[in-house]
Amino acid sequence: MSKKVREFYVQQNETLDQFAEVDDVLESARAKQATGELIPSTPPDTTRRDDDLRASVRWAVNVNTLVNVVLLGAKIGVVLLSHSMSLIASTVDSAMDFLSTLIIFGTTRVIEHRSWQSQFAYPTGKQRMEPLGILSFSVFMISSFMQVGIESIQRLCDPHLEQTHLPPIAIATMVGTIVVKGAVWLSCRAIKSASVEALQQDAENDIVFNFFSLLFPYIGQLVKWPYLDPLGGAVLSLYIIVEWTRTLLDNVGKLTGRRADPHEHQRIAYLLTRFSPLVTAIQHLSIYHAGEGLIVECDAVLPPETSLTVAHNIGEAAQYAIEQLSGIERAFVHIDVSSNPLSGHLER
């Protein structure tokens, strides 16, 4: 099976899983609507899923904190034994890993802390602090490796650069780092959270980064060419800058209200069209990011003769149903009686 065909079927399976989630929510919403119970409540499965996710995020952050502290201490010792520019870049990367874990650890604790004061100050919750923490860390990563890149270029321009020597303890430390980061990457793959995805990306970068941080000075030592080590430092710095610039731009887009992916529109349209036989059309559907979560704005068309009570119940029940879906932060359902091209908002 070709790669494109495999990706197509993976995407189809993900769409079917999303539709299955919608079906589960619809069964609960219809039961509430039939009994007139419109007070929003979270199904047990959703509550259990959210609790499991929070526990997984805490576990991943705690493990990464411990791993990064140990690796940072080991690499500082290695740099004192060898003045390799590639190893210095790897040590800076470990220091940034530790800083990133602290930032994510702090934002996770702030998000989880709930009281009447926090609910009053943040009516829609504090989930948007998560991409803000990642944004801050991205800036730290880019600025730090710009400095490493500048130092590497300066060493490349030095006509009297000395040969770098790698002691066996340095090689063992770097190999151990690659193995540990590989285990961290595998453990974070199944956790769907912006913070853990950032840690997973960081672990993936570390595997590549530490491999070449060891390869460049080691080959330079074998061929007796001292400039290979700072060249490796410059190349690795450029790699990290490019990777984290992508992460930075992705989170900027989410914080500034970027439009959601098409499959999110399919999921909400599927829910609305199956929610009630009175829903004759979807006039307007807009889904956009507000941080990691999504905001849904939609206009559902009902027959003009529908009573106010029935229209209200359908609209509010549909709104609660949409907010039960994973990834949805807020939903706003407006009931209309005719289809027209207007969005219901002023153009800004």
UniProtKB/TrEMBL annotation:
<feature type="domain" description="Cation efflux protein cytoplasmic">
    <location>
        <begin position="261"/>
        <end position="336"/>
    </location>
</feature>
<dbReference type="InterPro" id="IPR027470">
    <property type="entry name" value="Cation_efflux_CTD"/>
</dbReference>
<keyword id="KW-0813">Transport</keyword>
<keyword id="KW-0812">Transmembrane</keyword>
<feature type="transmembrane region" description="Helical">
    <location>
        <begin position="59"/>
        <end position="81"/>
    </location>
</feature>
<dbReference type="InterPro" id="IPR002524">
    <property type="entry name" value="Cation_efflux"/>
</dbReference>
<dbReference type="InterPro" id="IPR036837">
    <property type="entry name" value="Cation_efflux_CTD_sf"/>
</dbReference>
<dbReference type="GO" id="GO:0008324">
    <property type="term" value="F:monoatomic cation transmembrane transporter activity"/>
</dbReference>
<feature type="transmembrane region" description="Helical">
    <location>
        <begin position="165"/>
        <end position="186"/>
    </location>
</feature>
<dbReference type="InterPro" id="IPR050291">
    <property type="entry name" value="CDF_Transporter"/>
</dbReference>
<dbReference type="Pfam" id="PF01545">
    <property type="entry name" value="Cation_efflux"/>
</dbReference>
<feature type="transmembrane region" description="Helical">
    <location>
        <begin position="132"/>
        <end position="150"/>
    </location>
</feature>
<dbReference type="GO" id="GO:0016020">
    <property type="term" value="C:membrane"/>
</dbReference>
<feature type="domain" description="Cation efflux protein transmembrane">
    <location>
        <begin position="64"/>
        <end position="255"/>
    </location>
</feature>
<keyword id="KW-1133">Transmembrane helix</keyword>
<keyword id="KW-0472">Membrane</keyword>
<dbReference type="Pfam" id="PF16916">
    <property type="entry name" value="ZT_dimer"/>
</dbReference>
<feature type="transmembrane region" description="Helical">
    <location>
        <begin position="87"/>
        <end position="111"/>
    </location>
</feature>
<dbReference type="GO" id="GO:0098771">
    <property type="term" value="P:inorganic ion homeostasis"/>
</dbReference>
<dbReference type="GO" id="GO:0030003">
    <property type="term" value="P:intracellular monoatomic cation homeostasis"/>
</dbReference>
<protein>
    <submittedName>
        <fullName>Uncharacterized protein</fullName>
    </submittedName>
</protein>
<dbReference type="InterPro" id="IPR058533">
    <property type="entry name" value="Cation_efflux_TM"/>
</dbReference>
<dbReference type="InterPro" id="IPR027469">
    <property type="entry name" value="Cation_efflux_TMD_sf"/>
</dbReference>
